[in-house]
């Protein structure tokens, strides 16, 4: 049994929230190499999307392992120290607690993990995003694992005819449900179409009885009770041989759908698929970015990484994203560019409500004179 883990955190931005400083990446990489040498990890690499650092790791400790989570926590403490040393923006932004206590749950860093029995050929795709939220994966996961117009394999490959099981979390009420697709498809869409609350946590193949996809499903704002940055998500998807092909997994991102999270975590903007070299959201702290890193995992080793959106066939999606960004920006502070009030995290609505409380008055009841406006 092999465990594939991505653990990520924003521990400081360069410049503002746009990217990670190379010195922080160098620190994280050297710590990962030490952990491979020490036998904690089988393999590992470090990548950044925007201001978030992802540790991509293989090991044999299982999901939610204290020593793996503790290692990642230590790495993020180290990168935070580098961020402080260089005066980078929001040093330690996602580290909500002072001390590690056995598991990263509720502590700020995000993580997607899955256990797998390595197949003779094991293609794995890691998606890393910045300036959005975990529910941003709902739409592509639906298309990849439930929509035959995206994934002809659902029709052509008999190993997929039994469909896929989706585990969906309700982030407000801290509960979960399993949907069996295609049977439960319409019911599931009612929930996952509201991605700020309902988030797909994992997808399993019914035929293979194995995990096909896993996402990071935390919401920092719900953990911390106030805005502390977006919990820019990550996702792991296994491909081929009874699972969707690599091209079917990437296909949904050819449509730059709108996601929540740009500028102060408070705006809808198009999700732009980019290469690592373009994963630095700077216009209006956006548009939100997604990178896809492909690996042929073999004997637990990651092998050579492929930057899958570094492909001109995604140029049109990037172009459309820019057009949509122009259109949405012209709404300024109006919805639907700005998020609905309940999702607004930076704006301290509670404080505003308190300040204006005694200026609100009831509407005049029918048949009575309207109140005069104050002088
Ligand atoms: P191959 O026949 O090259 O294995 O391709 C199968 C496939 O999944 C293409 O989408
Ligand atoms: P991050 O969550 O990527 O730090 O972005 C925060 C933000 O508010 C950008 O405008
Ligand atoms: Mg940040
Ligand atoms: Mg970020």
Structural features:
375 residues, 25% strand, binds magnesium ion, binds 1,3-dihydroxyacetonephosphate, globular, alpha+beta, 9-stranded mixed β-sheet, single chain, 10 helices
Question: Any ligands, ions or cofactors bound here, and which?
Answer: 1,3-dihydroxyacetonephosphate, magnesium ion
Structural class: alpha+beta
The quaternary organization reads as single chain
Order of helices and strands: EHEEHEEHHEEHEEHEHEHEEEEHH
End-to-end Cα distance, whole Å, is 75 Å
Topology:
Blueprint: E1 2-9, H1 22-37, E2 43-49, E3 52-59, H2 66-85, E4 110-116, E5 122-130, H3 138-146, H4 153-156, E6 164-170, E7 175-181, H5 185-192, E8 198-205, E9 210-215, H6 220-224, E10 234-238, H7 246-250, E11 258-261, H8 262-265, E12 267-270, E13 272-273, E14 289-297, E15 306-307, H9 315-329, H10 349-356
Parallel strand pairs: 13-14
Antiparallel strand pairs: 1-3, 1-4, 2-3, 5-10, 5-14, 6-7, 6-8, 8-9, 9-10, 11-12, 14-15
Helix pairs in contact: 1-2
């Amino acid at each position: 049994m092999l465990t594939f883990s991505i653990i990520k955190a924003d521990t400081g931005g360069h410049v503002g929230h746009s990217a990670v400083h190379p010195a922080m990446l160098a620190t994280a990489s050297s710590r990962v190499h030490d952990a491979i040498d020490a036998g904690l990890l089988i393999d590992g690499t470090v990548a950044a999307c925007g201001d978030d650092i992802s540790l991509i790791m293989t090991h044999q400790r299982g999901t939610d392992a204290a020593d793996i989570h503790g290692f990642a926590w230590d790495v993020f403490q180290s990168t935070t120290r580098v961020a402080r040393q260089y005066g980078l923006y929001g040093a330690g932004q996602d580290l909500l607690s002072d001390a590690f206590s056995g598991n990263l749950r509720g502590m700020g860093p995000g993580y997607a993990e899955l256990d797998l029995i390595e197949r003779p050929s094991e293609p794995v795709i890691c998606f890393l995003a910045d300036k959005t939220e975990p529910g941003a994966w709902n739409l592509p996961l639906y298309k990849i694992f439930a929509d035959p117009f995206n994934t002809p394999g659902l029709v052509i490959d008999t190993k997929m005819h039994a469909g896929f099981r989706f585990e969906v979390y309700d982030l407000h009420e801290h509960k979960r449900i399993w949907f069996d697709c295609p049977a439960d498809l319409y019911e599931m869409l009612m929930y996952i179409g509201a991605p700020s609350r309902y988030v797909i946590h994992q997808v399993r193949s019914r035929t293979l009885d194995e995990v096909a996809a896993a996402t990071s499903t935390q919401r920092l704002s719900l953990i911390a009770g106030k805005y502390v940055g977006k919990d820019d998500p990550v996702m792991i998807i296994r491909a081929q041989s009874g699972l969707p092909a690599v091209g079917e997994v990437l296909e949904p991102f050819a449509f730059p759908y709108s996601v929540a999270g740009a500028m102060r975590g408070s705006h809808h903007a198009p999700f732009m698929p980019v290469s690592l070299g373009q994963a630095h959201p700077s216009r209006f702290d956006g548009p939100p970015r997604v990178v896809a890193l492909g690996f042929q995992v073999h004997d637990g080793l990651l092998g050579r990484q492929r930057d899958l959106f570094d492909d001109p066939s995604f140029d049109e999606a990037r172009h459309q994203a820019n057009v949509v960004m122009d259109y949405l920006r012209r709404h300024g502070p109006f919805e639907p560019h700005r998020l609905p009030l309940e999702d607004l995290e930076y704006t301290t609505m509670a404080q505003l409500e308190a300040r204006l409380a005694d200026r609100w008055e009831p509407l005049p009841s029918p048949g009575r004179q309207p109140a005069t406006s104050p002088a």
